[in-house]
Amino acid sequence: MTTLYQNFQTFLRGDTGQFSWQEFFREQVFRSWWFVLWLAILSFILFRVVAGQLAVSPFMTAAIVLIWVASVMATAVGNVLHRHTPYTHWLSNNLYNSVSSALISLLLVILIVAGVRGFIGWAFIRASFTPDSVLAAQNLSQWENPGANWGAVVNNFRNLMVFRFPRSEDWRLWFLILWNVVLLVPTTYVYSREVYRRSRIRRVLTGLWLITPIIAFIMLVGFGTDGPIPRINPDIAWGGLLLTLIAAVFGILASFPLGLMLALGRRSKIMGVPVWLTWLIIAPLTVYLLVTQTVPGLRSAMGLGQQVLSFWPLLLPVAAFLFLRYFQGNVVALMSTIYIECVRGVPLITILFMSIIMFPIFLPPGMQVLGTWRVLAAVTFFAAAYLAENVRGGLQSIPKGQFEAADALGLSTPRKYGLIVLPQALRAVIPAIVGQFIGLFKDTTLVETVGLIEFLGVANLISAQPNWLGVRREPYVFIAIVYFMGNFIMAAYSRRLERRLGVGER
Amino acid sequence: MTELTPQAPKRSESVPFWRDIRMLGILAQIAFLIAVILGFLWLARNVTQNMSTLGGSQFLCRDGTSNFRCAFDFLQLESQFAISETLIRYDPSDSYARALLVGALNTVKVAALGIILATILGTLTGIARLSSNWLIRSVARWYVDIIRNTPLLLQLFFLFFAVILAFPAIREAIQLFGLPIYLSQRGIDLPWLVRMPSFSAWLMYIVAGIALAAVVWWWIGRREQEWERDVNRPVWVLGTFLAVALLGWFLVSVTAADNQALLTPEGSGITELADIRLAVGDELGLENLGEIDEALADGSLSQEQLDAATVTVCVVKGDHAETNLAAEFRRANVPFAMKRGNNMTKTVAAYTAGDCDLMAASTAALSAELPAINESLPSAMVPVPEVPLRLSIPRIEGLNFVGGIKLSPNFAAILIGLTIYTGAFIAEIVRAGIQSVAKGQTEAARALGLSESQRLRLVVLPQALRVIIPPLTSQYLNLTKNSSLAIAVGYPDLWSVAFTTLNQSGRVIQVFLLVMGTYLVFSLVISFFLNWYNRRVALVER
After folding, report:
1. A294 or A61: whose pLDDT is higher?
2. Mean pLDDT throughout A230-248?
3. What contacts 24+ positions apart, CB below 8 Å, involve B78-84?
4. How far is CA B310 from CA B284, B292, B337, B341, in A?
5. Which of B15, B42, B134, B175 to mutate to test the interface with A (most CBs of A within 10 A)?
6. Going by C-beta distance under 8 Å and a sequence separation of 6 or more, which residues neighbour residue A222?
7. In angstroms, rounded to a whole number, what is the distance separating the alpha carbons of residues A5 and A347?
8. Which of A254, A399, A456, B32 could bridge to A445 as Cys pair (CB 3.0-4.6 Å)?
9. By three-state DSSP, how is residue A498 classified?
10. Helix, strand or coil, per DSSP, at residue B339
11. What residues contact residue A399 under an 8 Å CB cut-off, 6+ apart?
């Protein structure tokens, strides 16, 4: 390593060693016709951008260009002399690898600086933070290009968090948050240490976590009208970030058993309905239906479409044949596969609308289910199908030898799955499951389209308030930051979890 | 002899049936089947009970009776709602079936364009994430992280309300990078190529060019080894195709030189297009018409002078002559304005009444009308050259953009939103795929002297594709399903139209069955194609 001063001295002395301009140009500039064209386009774009930025903010742009020129020269000298200082070494490897790379670096730096300045100007310098809408309008009107009106977010903070949760019952939310935080701190300590594996404290914590859903239900819904925890109507009281979290957590927790059963069901190898039995049932049934449904149907059919439709009993033998061939007569596998493929093939928004609109049709007349529960059920059914596929991937990754060894040891099927198969399978799919939770957390925004006001829904409502009419960007940016932070933290934790559990290492 | 092997314990041969695995399996099947059938029967009973309270309107037949067979008869009824963007002709008196078809075609349009654009964006970003330049790597990483961690619906709302609807009004539309791409709150207007009547003739040359290029490809492939020289096959093939296409272009332009024409009043002294340019130049006092803008800014030319010198042309609405003449005038920098008539008769009436200086249409149409026109306003025909494709550039006329192609704010929002969102996921998939190729492959390729692009094309990409295709399939399916969010930004895709149909006709179950069936069919088609491609690039194991 040398210093810049030494390098320049050597360069000016003329001790450049074997450097050939011809080779430099041939390698860096005239590599091929396409490359020359690419360099020409790049230079043109760079020139236009620099000229444009010089007009807008001359000092910053001139400073950037000067710094760029100086660093390029220093790096070039270092490359020629084959001796670098630590900084020019990094620059030569990362920013100024080649002529085109150096040009791109300058272009990107100018664009990034312009973008960041614009954002900071909008979000902080020209912005108003006061929750008073009149004062905010005054503050913003003094700018020619007004910045962000964060007052909309500040004023509506409670709305964004819990929307219409009754204020008198706020203590229930605080209790729930406190419960979770108080449990979380020792959990991160106890669960990650081998020495506590069989200790009592770990069992106590596990038990407390297992009753957390019940506590959450009691706190969020309540029971009775007079007691200490009166019932609140989820349709009205749940909203904002609270509803997003409830939907996501409920979706993942409730979809776990269903998804596990679907995955195991799809892979089930129990002996299916024998061929003779299937045809024994299907053939007479088909004939019976043909006689009783098709013939009168043909007679009263109006048009070719209805005539073709009246031959529907013929589908039964076709279905039976496919059933025998692809599922070996296994009804459980058939049902699981049909459910998974159908639910995965349609958009979530259609399932949500279907559950809202068609739930009352599928329930006995007179039985009413709140809209919130219908939506939560739809989210659960949707998540279960995706979870089933992830778990199935995990089950497929377990070598057959494990199953055979468990059978050789004489373990019954529940023991085999509970002690050998599922621990390995679930460990292998933890990254996929965390990814699914992140996806579900984002997909809860779709419930906004069916009328439940969650986080994004509140943001949309803010711009309709008379005080903050038309203020759209600020709530969206706030929500984006919250979602980003939440998902980023979850993804980072999942990576840590993967490393600790040794996923991918045998 | 002592017994070395212990005696086998005596036990009965058969296992009792309640412990026999096969019997248990069959019993479990039967129990499961009974449970499922009971469940279905319970649901069916609820449905029929609720149907009877809903009334017979769900399965109304054309003759007024109610029957399951008429479940889908409602599709022939009039829809009575309008759809803002359609690929095929549609108006509110068309049937529900046609409305749903329009919605499905819109979904296919968004999904197809979205898949293509997202793949391009995702591949470029994935490669950028592995670039040797730290800045490019960081920018790509931030883009992917931010987009993947925020919900799609939020991005769509942000794009639609906070970006596109916040664009300025048409008069102050933003011009992107100085190119004629205009961003306004009415949407995005792009230049577009328009087919002229002579395009079909040129198409034959294109097809011949492709055939000849294929022959050249095959022939060079055959002879490459004999020649022992480096022949750049793609360049030769591309060159052949371009040569034939250009030859066809010139030939067709020459034969079509008389397809379009202008009518000018006889006293104007204009016998060819160049005369118009000279005439306008004389009137404005400018040698070079390209300097009109500077002259306006200087003040040497006033807006009234410009308006007076603007050439007005009568055209029939939707006629090719408009695009053709607009392109010619644009090249010559002649200021012009178009007056559109609903049909030929009205246009001719406007011309003879003196509303415009010129009239443009196809030569055949003009020749037919010329005798009648000559009686009131003696005119001469000036031929206008025609080429197979004309570039139509949007320009402001009154309160609208004319020319070019217009992306409505809704369509632009859903397309750009889906592209950016799915592109981020595809970038991660491509990055993982490229990183899955062993480093030894790269080193061996470099040791063999392959150039960087050869290394990528011949060594890395084929191996990376095997890892990329399966997750890419699921991303394409996600994009198709996410296109249903177009309802949130007002674009009439399949789900949006189906929801309106559902509300208007009240046939809940049938519409849901149709919509979910259609989405399932889309998913199956995409999976089928990609599985076929996957099998082609998959590892052939021993």
Report:
1. A61
2. 91
3. B79/B501, B79/B504, B80/B504, B81/B500, B81/B504, B83/B492, B83/B497, B84/B408, B84/B410, B84/B490, B84/B492
4. 10, 12, 7, 19
5. B134
6. A169, A172, A229, A230, A231, A232
7. 64
8. A456
9. helix
10. strand
11. none
Query: Which residue on chain A is closest to B163 by alpha carbon?
Result: A473
B258-288 pLDDT, tens digit each: 788 888 888 777 788 888 888 888 887 777 7
User: In whole angstroms, how far apart are CA A353 and each of A346, A347, A460, B490?
Assistant: 12, 10, 20, 17
- Measured distance CA(B143)–CA(B150) in Å, rounded: 11
The residues that bridge with A262 in the sheet, in sequence order, are: none
- Which residue has better confidence, A483 or A431? A483
CA dist B25 and A331 (Å) reads 11
Which positions 383-422 of A are in contact with B (Cβ < 8 Å)? none
Of B505, B108, B496, B84, which is closest to residue A350 (Cα–Cα)?
B496
List the structure tokens of B442: 């790269």
Q: Identify residue A480 by its one-letter amino acid code.
A: A
Write down the pLDDT at residue A503: 55
Interface touch B139/A108, C-beta < 8 Å: yes
Find the mean pLDDT for residues A308-312.
81
Hey, is B490 helix, strand or coil? coil
Least CB-CB distance to A104: which of B47, B136, B148? Answer: B136
Q: Number of CB pairs < 8 Å for A and B?
A: 165
Which residues lie below 8 Å from residue A445, measured CB to CB, with a gap of 6+? A244, A454, A455, A456, B151, B152, B153, B154
Task: Give the mean model confidence (pLDDT) for residues B252-263.
Answer: 84
Reading the block at residue B225, the tokens are: 């080894």
Tokens matching residue B13: 């041969």
CA distance B523 to chain A (A): 6
Q: Based on C-alpha coordinates, what's the Rg of chain A?
A: 33
Instruction: Write the ipTM.
Output: 0.89
Q: What are B156's strand-pairing partners?
A: none
Residue B322: the pLDDT is 87
Reading phi first (left if > 0) and then psi (alpha if -120 to 50, else beta), residue B522 is in: alpha
Chain-centre distance for alpha carbon B533: 22
Rounded-to-integer distance, Cα B25 and Cα A332, Å: 11
Beta strand pairing status for B260-265 and B187-190?
A: unpaired
Q: Do B149 and A483 touch (CB under 8 A)?
A: yes
Within 8 A by CB and 6+ apart from B232, the residues are none
Any A CB within 8 A of B124 CB: no
Among A123-132, A186-195, B136-145, B532-541, name the one with the lowest average pLDDT.
B532-541
d(CA B248, CA A442): 53
- How many residues are there in chain B? 542
- B133, two tokens: 């330049």
Per CB-CB distance under 8 Å, the chain B contacts of A92 are none
| Best residue of A94, A343, A434, A494 to probe chain B, by most B CBs closer than 10 Å | A94
The enclosing H or E element of B395 equals strand B395-397
- With a CB cutoff of 8 Å and minimum separation 6, the contacts of B368 are none
Q: For the beta carbon of residue B172, count every other beta carbon within 10 angstroms.
A: 9
In residues, how long is chain A? Answer: 506
Lowest mean pLDDT among B39-48, B119-128, B421-430: B39-48
